[in-house]
Amino acid sequence: MRIAFAAALLALAACQPAIDKATGEATAAAEAKAREEMGQDDPNIPFTPSPVGESRTYEAFSKTAMSFTPGVLTLTPTPQKSENLPSGAVFAFGNGIIYETTSMPGGAEMGPTAKPADWANLFIDTSGAPVDISKIEMYSVDKETVPPGTPNGGLCKKASFLATYTVKSPGAEDITIAAFEGDAWPPASETALCGTFSYAAVH
Questions:
Q1: Does 22 share its domain with 60?
Q2: Burial readout 53-65 (b: 16 or more C-beta within 10 A, e: otherwise)
Q3: How far is residue 84 from each of residues 70, 148, 185, measured CA to CA in Å?
Q4: pTM value?
Q5: Other C-beta atoms within 10 Å of 25: how many?
């Protein structure tokens, strides 16, 4: 009986490393998949995101902005989540609407429709200068929060993309947001534009 019991223990001990190895390989594979989804190539290289700017505060002043998002807009830059992903921003409005976004470098050059870029129909440079496409910042919406009962709802029925154009002058700064819905950028139809909303910096 003792011999049989000892043999069973040896057999169990012999199997254990294989079980531990299989478990370890499965865990490593899961971690590698997670890193890949986050865009991180080499887990051995520490990732330090580039610093981002400070939050900026604006007050709604266009009719659409005062209707849909009355009060203050706080625009907060967010750092990269990995070396292969761009930074982003959080748009937090005074009535509780929040858009968490990721930057879309080069998105403005693709234009708001399937036509060549023609942002002049959406944005106005109060200095009188033509709209500078290089100053347009594009964002894809990762998460939209619209509190129940919010008058008029969010900027769109479901916002997918935001484009911003900021105009600075001595003692003033204005930002206009163009909101779009749809699954792809650029959208195939002009009807993807939900509206434009303008805000003035609070000093």
A1: no
A2: eeebebebebebb
A3: 36, 36, 20
A4: 0.75
A5: 10
Same domain, 32 and 95: no
Q: What does the block give as tokens for 74?
A: 């706080």
From residue 23, give the alpha-carbon distance in Å to each of 12, 30, 34. Answer: 16, 11, 17
In tens, the pLDDT along 113-161 reads 656 557 888 998 877 888 999 999 999 999 999 999 888 889 999 999 9
Q: Which domain holds residue 88?
A: 56-201
Burial of 82 (0-12, 13-18, 19+ CB in 10 A): middle
Q: Please check whether residues 22 and 75 belong to one and the same domain.
A: no
| Residue whose entry in the numeric block shows the structure tokens 């830059």 | 77
Residue 113 lies in a domain: yes
Note whether residue 190 is domain-resident: yes
Whether 109 and 11 share a structural domain: no
Structural domain count, the chain: 2
DSSP 20: H
Tokens of 162: 């935001």
